[in-house]
Amino acid sequence: MHRQPVGSINDSGHLVIGGCDTVELTKQFGTPLIVLDEAVIRESCRLYREAFRKHYPQGQVVYAGKAFLCTAMCRLVEQEGLFLDVVSGGELYTAMKAEFSPEKIFFHGNNKTQEELEAAIQYGVGRIVVDNPYELRLLEPLTKKKKKPIIIHFRVTPGVEAHTHHSIQTGQSDSKFGFSLLDDTLFKEIRNVIRFPRLKLTGLHCHIGSQIFDQKAYQKSIEVMLRLIKNIKVKTGAVVQELNFGGGLGVRYTQDDAPPSIEEHIEIVTKTVRRESTALGLPMPILYDEPGRSIVARAGVTLYTIGSIKEIPKIRKYVSVDGGMSDNPRVALYDAKYESVLANRFKESQTEKVTIAGKCCESGDILQKDVMLPKVKSGDILALFSTGAYHYAMASNYNRLPRPAVVLCKEGKAEVIIRRETYDDLIARDVVPDHLNHKVRIRSR
Ligand code: LLP
User: Which of 291, 322, 354 is the last residue of a domain?
Assistant: First the structure.
């Protein structure tokens, strides 16, 4: 069962998200505007929680903050009982400012800096997911002042290829992430850690990719990881009780996407865990899943105002919006596909084929190619669906466009959770060095 895009239509024929008329939202907050439906985020969290409760009670959901993070989002996921995965000092800082319980934070990253590790230890994060030997060398001396051991997981690349866009495949052996299984570095480092009393290895982590529909890749990676846990025990004596299979469940962007439901996904994965653990004579591990996209993608809709319209006879009709690759780089990066509607004329039939262009100075700044919409006019509001994950998080100030505002809608009430950037925000970090302080003009001849 794959879930339809969010929203409904009101009597004025307007798109409604979280009980809010989106046309009214654009009047109040301007465009581009990212609208998040709070109930949909909470529902996804609940579906994960309930799926684990039903199929594998010793499981815990860890929200992958890279999909979308701000202080309000931290509060929301903590209220929903989720842990949090952070990948940088900035994400960690955001979580701490939101007073997220540090022991529920997992710290990831393939090149954590000394400062980031120091901060993670000082805050007392729950797990540091060690990616490589260099990180271990940084970590060991930092643990000296700590009374309690630092709990770590090792990230492993299981050598499994998930069928998804190559830029978001991560489980194959040729990857920058984690310990490879093609040599014995992992075992060497585990023996090292065993001798080191202030580090306590409790688990393994793998992440095979993102936007994954095919559950066979998960089954394969679980098999590899459980065999590895057994091998580690035999070769080093270390007992690994925790396994994190790293999120990655795909979502529906268009009608061509048919991902499994959250429950189907958890059922398949946890069945594999039970079967393989029993076959290998291992106790059932504590399981962690780390979804980002499937928590927040569907909840998000981006609203744009349509401006210029250019028709090239017999070739194409370009309809330009007031955002583009600056708030949605996914089309340029991954050739991502979306569905959209005119939020102010949702009921009208789709009679013309148009290409939605952004306003950045690049021909590649296209949000949708050849899509059907009602006859478009300047001033119409375009709503692009499923933009909750990896949109604001990947937004830039390219062309010095201010990043949009993000509003959270619930039962007809809209609240800003990230305010729109202003032009002053854009220049706030600019510095003019002294020697450029007077306006010297070079005379033209
Ligand atoms: N855990 C780790 C270690 C990850 O690297 C990721 C995503 C996740 C969990 C969450 O995966 P999710 O459930 O969200 O698929 N920018 C790309 C996606 C990059 C994913 C990076 N890692 C996109 O827009 O499609």
Answer: 291
